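Look over this one:
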Amino acid sequence: MQTEILEEHPEEELEVYAVWFNMLSSDSRSGWPEDLLTDPRVQHFWDESRIAGLWYGENVTKKQQGHVEWDAYFLYGSDAVWDGEAEMISWGRTIVSTRAELKENLTRLLRNHAAR
């Protein structure tokens, strides 16, 4: 994401929220990779209770009650307002395996926004 998306659009007013939490035995806040997603448009959050992952798992991907969605991206347009009902452009899991889709959808979104 850092090189394939953010560095390719250095002038775009993007907001990226990276939410980190424990899902694997090797995950920990102390092991958080500080050199990952260093672009200044990225805001990092540590979610010890997995609240964001639970909300997305139960309300967006709807896999099952109590499912924690993780290693996923959720793409919203610049006019999205966080009220629990914001219109999502796309989502994908895992981020690595769906990065081409993310890049394509973001490029289309930026192109449409510039055409306004």
Summary: The first strand starts at residue 16 and ends at 20. The helical segments are 2-6, 51-59, 99-115.
